[in-house]
Automatic annotation (TrEMBL):
This is Lysosomal dipeptide transporter MFSD1. Residues 1-21 are annotated as: Disordered. It comes from the Eukaryota. Homodimer. Interacts with lysosomal protein GLMP (via lumenal domain); the interaction starts while both proteins are still in the endoplasmic reticulum and is required for stabilization of MFSD1 in lysosomes but has no direct effect on its targeting to lysosomes or transporter activity. The keyword Translocase does not apply. Residues 1-10 have a biased composition (Basic and acidic residues).
Length: 529
């Protein structure tokens, strides 16, 4: 936590929501920055910070097209989880080895999202998203081929390739949306993004086994995933062409080109200037994202083993774990946009995760109840954390911040995927009782951290994360204006902020966790047990 109460004013004056594509035009010193309601011109002077003031016509284009970027990748990931029983039986592998397949997606994304976030902050993300979606298609194709030829080794390679794309595309999507909607309606935009993501995951869990049965071939679940990944890159191409056309209307002066050139030099030390509350949120994310993601990989098999359901029925019931976010996240976006209460919403998420783990691990109440409770947790948690990061980091570092956020997600998931596979293999009858106990312990610890987060943001940040719309909009506009003053002169938003010494051990612990994830992955990949 931050140690000095006086930092509150520094946060208020220096940090803000995220903003748009970094390769846009810079504001010349002394130039005004306003949206002309009568003009169709895209006013993007001021770099990332300026897209928040772009006309709504272009914001809607960015929103609608960007929402479909990762549709295929989310479907593919959930379809793989729903097919755990078929994968372990057809590939003749253990639960630990299945954990390696699942962790293959996470392990590669312990590093790539950070690099991808930095890329976005420095160069923008228009054509980068196309390259990343190509990796998703390639990984999805290799997954289907691995299933067809029943090759465990190829399956691991396929998921690593797939993981490179699936992790980066989400980071790019969240960063892009955050940059467009920084001052207004950020929570709504992220809510819609999470809703579409959960819808695709819901469909993957729901139909994977049914497609396999209907086609009389379990591999067809993966061929369908491949087809939907092709659809996503088609949507991505439309977005890229539209944005390229809009950007083509802007002609940079020599002075603006020089400012852009300065911008494309990432300052590593700035990571150590990030506010300590950012790292607090990352710790909560590290724990909860690991539980959420690992739970999804076992949901269908848990219902089969613990409740004795047949494959297709288990898939239908497990899909309930994805249902609530489809409807709830846009509503939560509106609630947070108007009333704030981000940390309170995160606390509600924590409570439902604990209840879900208890119901599914030790009772025989219909599995749908526990899955819906889990689904509520999944709806409430991520949107609260993502939008909070957008409020506390400077816009020029939002891509990097979301990259670290996504990386922490995957570090935790990679560790826990392997760990729960080992725990299940060592449990009598390979039941999930001990696995659910691990989930409850982690969720309980996270609950304590969230309570501390509320106190942190209230005492050091003037209750910024809980603030209602009327006060927050004024405050964030002031932050945006001060940020524009720096970026318009080619300065870094953190140029006047000192390094926070406590950040060094925090980053050190993050790196240690990353190394642990890689060690576990390779040890169990090689030995399998």
């Amino acid at each position: 936590m931050d140690q000095k109460p006086s930092e509150k004013e520094q946060v208020v004056s220096n940090e803000a929501y995220p903003t748009g594509v970094a390769s846009e035009k810079y504001l010349q010193e002394g130039e005004s920055f306003k949206e002309d309601d009568k003009s169709e011109e895209v006013i993007t002077h001021g770099g990332d910070t300026a897209l928040a003031n772009a006309p709504w016509k272009y914001k809607m284009i960015a929103l609608v097209t960007a929402l479909l970027f990762p549709f295929g990748s989310h479907f593919s990931a959930s379809a793989l989880s729903a097919m755990k029983k078929q994968i372990t039986s057809n590939l003749a592998i253990s639960n630990t080895q299945y954990g390696i397949i699942s962790a293959s997606v996470s392990i590669i994304n312990t590093i790539f999202p950070i690099a991808g976030g930095m890329f976005i902050d420095m160069f923008g993300s228009v054509w980068g998203t196309l390259a990343i979606n190509f990796m998703i298609i390639l990984g999805s194709l290799l997954t289907a081929l691995a299933a067809k030829f029943e090759s465990y080794a190829l399956m691991v390679v396929a998921r690593v390739v797939f993981g490179i794309g699936s992790g980066l595309i989400v980071t790019m999507q969240e960063s892009l949306l955050s940059k467009w909607f920084r001052t207004r309606h950020l929570s709504i935009a992220i809510g819609l993004q999470l809703s579409i993501s959960r819808l695709s995951s819901f469909l993957g869990t729901l139909v994977a086994n049914s497609v396999a049965v209907a086609a009389n071939d379990w591999v067809w679940a993966f061929w369908l995933s491949f087809i939907l990944c092709c659809f996503s890159i088609a949507m991505n191409l439309i977005y890229a062409l539209v944005v390229k056309h809009l950007k083509g209307q802007v002609v940079l002066t020599e002075k603006e080109k020089e400012a852009l050139k300065k911008k494309k030099t990432f300052k590593w030390r700035s990571i150590f200037k990030f506010p300590l509350i950012f790292w607090h949120i990352i710790l909560v994310e590290f724990i909860y994202a690991a539980v959420w993601s690992s739970f999804q990989t076992i949901a269908t098999d848990l219902i089969i083993k613990h409740f004795g359901a047949e494959d297709r029925l288990a898939g239908y019931k497990a899909s309930a774990s994805q249902a609530v976010p489809i409807v709830a996240t846009p509503i939560l976006g509106f609630i947070m946009d108007f009333y704030g209460q981000r940390v309170v919403i995160l606390l509600i998420s924590s409570i439902f995760l604990i209840l879900s783990s208890g119901l599914l691990g030790w009772t025989y109440v219909d599995a749908v109840v526990g899955m819906v409770f889990y689904s509520i947790s999944l709806a409430f948690g991520p949107i609260a954390m993502i939008t909070s990061i957008g409020m506390i980091l400077p816009s020029e570092y939002i891509g990097t911040g979301l990259g670290i956020y996504k990386s922490s997600n995957n570090v935790g998931t990679a560790i826990l995927d392997v760990a729960i596979g080992v725990v299940q293999d060592k449990t009598a009858g390979q039941s999930y009782v001990n696995v659910m106990l691990v989930f409850i312990i982690l969720a309980g610890f996270g609950f304590v951290l969230i309570c501390a987060l509320w106190w942190n943001q209230f005492y050091f940040y003037g209750n910024l994360l809980e603030m209602k719309r009327s006060k927050r909009v004024v405050r964030m506009q002031e932050i945006n204006d001060k940020e524009l003053e720096l970026t318009s002169k080619g300065k870094d938003p953190y140029s006047e902020t000192p390094v926070r010494k406590l950040s060094y051990p925090i980053v050190g612990l993050f790196v240690a966790a990353l190394i642990t994830a890689w060690v576990l992955f390779f040890v169990y990949s090689i030995h399998g047990k």
